[in-house]
Design a protein that fits this description.
Among the domains are: 80 residues, Ribosomal Protein L31e, Chain: W (Roll), CATH 3.10.440.10; 38 residues, no CATH class. Helices cover 33% and strands 15% of the residues. It is built from four helices and four strands. It has a four-stranded mixed beta sheet. The longest helix is centred in the last third of the chain and has 20 residues. It is elongated and about 110 Å long.
Length: 171
Amino acid sequence: MANLERIYTIPFRSAFEHSRYTRGKRAVKLVQEFALRHMKAQDVRVSEGVNSAILRDGIEKPPRRLKVRMVKGDDALVRVWLIGEEEKIKAKADAKKTAVLPGKTAPIRAESANREAEEEKKKKTDEAKKPEAKPSAPAATAKPSATAPAVAAKPATPAQKPAAPATAAKK
């Protein structure tokens, strides 16, 4: 059995007979019931686009009617799409698969392409932030030669007085 494809306009009149807070849920159930009845299927899958179109104005205000495309596969499963939604999803998936970085010839995944581009930017900014190394000055202290006498260096801080012993008795 080949795929069966039809376009329907589903009315949501009976959804408005229910309370305000259940109208959106009831409209989604109406889509499923409509597909089962008209496509003579065993199971129905409603796409994300149809669901978001029904709930676009909130759960209290579904649209009065919705034009959809129903496709019945060999497995008696009906998929309900907005018109043109499936093609947009396929085009977006193909664009991700065939994304090419500038300077590269082989197609790669878009996620890895974005990650690589971010890493390259980060490396460039890190290199730009590093200060240039200044040449070091010649060492001021050289080893004394064998012929010159060694001179004792004075301490940089003055000598401190020794602390008084703690055991000294006061009189």
